[in-house]
């Protein structure tokens, strides 16, 4: 029986995608990072992606407001961009900037959608 | 003239009542048996997930110093404890469902009411506790279940009526349980994927550091064509591989690095496969319980039980669990 996804499920799936990208790319990003500051940045972004995901699991996420729906769309697009960037990892700075944006959007989504 | 007709009517009624109970007993027994089997595989599947929460937390704590990942925040650890308690409540409901089916089986075989009454009441309590663990508003309390001794004038008909009543009571709790599982389906599949991903990362980190011996992973490949894996030879072989330059031509890399890279790819494949299996396991488990609800309805309406769908889903969950364990090297 086909089941339609609820708001929570759709939003959770997008936050999960961000966490999974951070998880799968952590070792490559951490070893590519130059210096302790950049490595610390990778660690912080990974930790924030993980925290946002687990917060989302138990929250009841709703995208009734236009703001939440817009953030959700933006996060989906950012995840796609990040995935492409991680496949080559040509420019670490721009990849980290994408990861930072995705993580911020994921955290904002969980906070606003759970409100 | 009237008397033989009356006698015939009475005899026919008795025959009908006897027929009624003669089909009800074995069919209730079959329903109980199929319900027990569906519950066992569903409980196995839930137990895998509940155990994964602790393994995930430990994996995160191990990964922090080994790979540079940060320790999980206290808030995340609190969430994981909550997830574990939800899965435990779900496992408890599965166990009570199994006990209710054992009670239904006893009722069918010996007309023993105590076990099924206890089973149905404990099941209703466990489903309510699961609902509470999910943070849902409390539902209306379910009245205590009991089988009256006065249902039906004849022993056979009374037995059939008690079986029907017990089936309905189990089904009502099962329906409440399935409704909760259905709303949690995507969340459950998502968190199972995340748990497997986290554990897989830890396994790959151990292998990359040379802390995990790959014997159990490589042995089946050797055994499939009649070769015996010799664990004693492994360290000597590694020492030789270390002296050989990498087949990739990468500066400074050797054949041991090649082996580690190959093992990492196999582990990556296994993690991806298990992640895929998580969603399928959740779907099949739910479909099996939904089929069970339909079987109950059919039994209660017509004393018929077509259990083919239940058995099909049970076999599918078993096959998925076997594949899941194979991907975990169990």
Please work out how many helical segments of chain A DSSP would assign: 4
pLDDT below 50 for ≥5 consecutive residues: which ranges of chain B? none
Between the first and last Cα atoms of chain A, what is the distance in angstroms? 32 Å
- Helix fraction of chain A, binned, reads over 70%
Element string of chain A (H = helix, E = strand):
HHHH
Helix content of chain B: over 70%
Number of helical runs of chain B? 9
The global form of chain A is elongated
Order of helices and strands of chain B: HHHHHHHHH
What's the alpha carbon Rg of chain B, rounded to whole Å?
27 Å
Structure summary, number of beta strands of chain A: 0
Shape of chain B: elongated
Most extensive chain contact? Answer: A-B, 29 and 28 residues
* Count of the separate structural domains of chain A: 1
Give me the count of strands of chain B.
0
Number of domains of chain B: 1
Mean pLDDT of chain B: 86
Low-confidence parts of chain A:
none
Average pLDDT for all residues of chain A = 91
Structural class of chain A: mainly alpha
Structure, explained:
- The complex is a heterodimer of chains A (115) and B (330).
- With 115 residues, chain A is mostly helical.
- Chain A contains four helices and no strands.
- In chain A, helix 1 (7-32) runs parallel beside helix 3 (66-88).
- The termini of chain A are far apart.
- The model of chain A has no long low-confidence stretch (mean pLDDT 91).
- Chain B has one domain.
- Chain B is 81% helix and 0% strand.
- Chain B has nine helices and no strands.
- Chain B has helices spanning 2-67, 74-110, 113-133, 155-183, 185-208, 215-223, 231-243, 255-302, 308-327.
- In chain B, helix 1 runs parallel beside helix 5 (185-208), helix 2 packs antiparallel against helix 4 and helix 8 packs antiparallel against helix 9.
- Chain B is elongated.
- Chain A binds chain B through residues 1, 3, 5-6, 8-9, 12-13, 16, 19-20, 23-24, 26-27, 30, 39, 42-44, 46-47, 50-51, 53-55, 57-58, and chain B through 67-70, 72-73, 75-76, 79-80, 82-83, 135, 182-183, 185-187, 190-191, 193-194, 197-198, 201, 205, 287, 290.
């Amino acid at each position: 029986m086909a089941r339609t996804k609820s708001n929570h499920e759709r939003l959770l799936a997008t936050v999960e995608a961000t966490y999974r990208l951070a998880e799968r790319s952590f070792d490559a990003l951490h070893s590519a990072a130059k210096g302790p500051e950049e490595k610390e940045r990778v660690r912080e972004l990974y930790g924030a992606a993980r925290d946002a995901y687990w917060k989302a699991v138990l929250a009841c996420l709703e995208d009734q407001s236009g703001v939440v729906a817009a953030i959700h769309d933006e996060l989906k697009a950012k995840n796609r961009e990040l995935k492409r960037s991680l496949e080559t990892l040509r420019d670490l700075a721009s990849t980290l900037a994408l990861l930072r944006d995705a993580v911020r959007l994921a955290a904002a989504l969980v906070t606003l959608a759970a409100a | 003239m009237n008397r033989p007709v009356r006698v015939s009517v009475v005899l026919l009624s008795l025959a009908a009542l006897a027929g009624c109970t003669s089909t009800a007993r074995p069919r209730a027994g079959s329903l109980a048996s199929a319900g027990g089997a569906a519950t066992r595989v569903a409980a196995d599947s839930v137990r895998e997930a509940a155990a994964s929460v602790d393994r995930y937390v430990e994996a995160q704590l191990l990964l922090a110093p080994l790979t540079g990942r940060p320790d999980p925040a206290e808030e995340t650890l609190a969430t994981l404890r909550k997830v574990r308690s939800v899965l435990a409540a779900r496992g408890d409901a599965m166990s009570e469902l199994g006990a209710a089916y054992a009670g239904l089986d006893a009722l069918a075989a010996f007309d023993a009411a105590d076990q099924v009454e206890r089973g149905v009441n404990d099941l209703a309590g466990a489903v309510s506790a699961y609902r509470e663990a999910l943070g849902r508003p409390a539902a209306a309390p379910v009245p205590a279940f009991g089988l009256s001794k006065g249902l039906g004038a004849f022993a056979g008909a009374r037995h059939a009526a008690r079986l029907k009543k017990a089936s309905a009571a189990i089904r009502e709790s099962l329906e409440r349980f399935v409704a909760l599982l259905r709303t949690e389906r995507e969340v459950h599949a998502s968190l199972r994927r995340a748990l497997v991903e986290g554990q897989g990362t830890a396994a790959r980190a151990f292998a990359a550091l040379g802390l995990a011996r790959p014997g159990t992973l490589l042995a089946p490949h050797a055994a499939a064509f009649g070769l015996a894996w010799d664990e004693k030879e492994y360290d000597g072989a590694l020492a030789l591989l270390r002296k050989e330059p990498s087949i990739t031509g990468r500066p400074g890399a050797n054949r041991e690095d090649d082996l580690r890279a190959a093992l990492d790819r196999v582990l990556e494949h296994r993690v991806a496969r298990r992640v895929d299996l998580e969603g399928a396991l959740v779907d099949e488990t739910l479909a099996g319980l939904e089929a069970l609800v339909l079987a109950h309805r059919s039994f209660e309406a017509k004393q018929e039980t077509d259990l083919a769908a239940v058995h099909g889903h049970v076999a599918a969950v078993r096959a998925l669990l076997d594949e899941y364990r194979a991907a975990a090297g169990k």
